[in-house]
Write a structure and sequence with these properties.
Two copies of one chain form a homodimer. In chain A, strand 5 and strand 6 form a beta hairpin. Chain A is elongated and about 60 Å long. The first copy, chain A, is of the alpha+beta class. At the A-B interface, strand 2, strand 4, helix 1, helix 2 and helix 3 of A face strand 2, strand 4, helix 1, helix 2 and helix 3 of B.
Chain lengths: ~260, ~260
């Protein structure tokens, strides 16, 4: 049984604006404690959480045999997993030695930074036809994608043209490259839109809001938490932007 | 100019087996040092590295104004970035406090674990028609994907049927869920194949090899580093598996 959440969405299709129900995949932060210490927070879909914990910790090299895991308690109210592994002490100690300052990665995988984000103002409004036109342009310019099929792209637009485009194997990296380009070139993001080929997870919405983008557009789907974050920070989140169609998941007033 | 690497690949198309040249997107580990301390390693495409560093560190909340970055040296030989940020001390200290044991995440984003992996044996051989048939079955069963469009899936197959399937917002998580399912159910992975809907980055290949899978299949593209890791550990890496077509990037002898 798929784990989805129903939301109301404004769908634009052949120029018409409809209010319809859409299904979003759920996304939750699962914090894993190993032998009493916080180990990592994974943003994940809340199905098969025990399998996820076992597979993740195995991929991390924390145990060899299933018998090494003497306890694995999963609390589905606050999404925590408490794991006891015999013999993991040495591995855990070594890992800490190698990367003592890696906190950021775990932090950004969690959802801790939303609380610090202020609500975005509504100083940008664009026509729905302009969104479709810019998405079309964006796809034409994704050169690396076309030659290898292996990357995501992100782009900056003034709602008329693509101003900057970045491609990367990681969808987060492509977005970070655009944010970095704006910083390095002193570009005001408040009147621009951010485009991505990737799925809209909560982390991407958080990145966009932290960079003061008011409108984020993707041809892919958002998660439920991405929509919740977008609503909280007053960001216009657009998914499934393909051809003349698009779905507006939050703050639709910026699309006129 | 796209940053790609040409490789030789065995392409299977309408039953014919051809040797062709394919373009793969490049993937490198970029290690970022902030104020002299290792901060994170990002697996990324080696374009726009300065933009990536600025955007990533801004998304992480390490600086507000571009003037706070007093130095940013990028070494393209060993892929390191040395950044000096004025006033980042407090933020860095706080981050360490929150997640003292998060090392694993940074570790798995880097590529440090390949060295520990032994070469996989060649004890499994399957017919190319079986691969196509299993991929077809896999796509039919991706229920959550079809209803939301927002997830990746991974699956386990005995080259006849899909034995287990997992879906998640994260492509790594979906693979981890299958690995965890095998561990929890004492399933031998050596005679099974692992399928994923996601792009084949080096991390996913590493996860598959660590779990002793000999064959990894995706409908998406691999990166150049994914292919290099697959060759090193003797894993059969198959990409672009769609319809009756597929590309074999490494160890083709397992596909007969």
């Amino acid at each position: 049984m798929p784990d989805v959440r129903k939301v109301q969405v404004e769908k634009i299709k052949r120029g018409e604006r409809l209010r319809v129900t859409d299904s979003l995949v759920r996304e939750v932060p699962l914090t894993i404690f190993v032998n009493g210490r916080e180990y990592a927070t994974l943003m994940c879909t809340p199905q098969d959480l025990r399998e996820l914990v076992y597979g993740f910790l195995h991929s991390e090299g924390l145990f060899q045999s299933v018998r090494d895991i003497t306890e694995c308690g999963i609390d589905r109210r606050d999404y925590t997993a408490s794991v006891k592994i015999s013999g993991a002490k040495k591995v855990l100690r070594e890992k800490r030695l190698i990367t003592s300052a890696c906190a950021a990665v775990a932090l950004s995988r969690g959802n801790l930074k939303i609380a610090h984000l202020a609500k975005l103002p509504v100083t940008l409004r664009i026509r729905k036809e302009a969104v479709s036109q810019v998405v079309h342009q964006f796809q034409k310019e994704c050169e690396l994608y076309r030659s290898t099929g292996g990357v995501h792209a992100a782009a900056l637009s003034d709602s008329k043209a693509i101003i900057s485009l970045a491609e990367d194997v990681g969808r987060h990296n492509a977005v970070d490259k655009i944010v970095g380009w704006c910083i390095l070139n002193s570009v005001d993001t408040q009147d621009k839109i951010l485009l991505t080929t990737g799925r809209l997870s909560s982390e991407v919405v958080t990145k966009a809001a932290a960079a003061q983008f008011q409108i984020l557009v993707s041809r892919s789907a958002p998660t439920d938490m991405a929509v919740r974050v977008a609503k909280r920070v007053n960001l216009t989140l657009i998914g499934f932007a393909r051809g003349k169609r698009l779905n507006i998941y939050s703050s639709p007033k910026r699309i006129v």
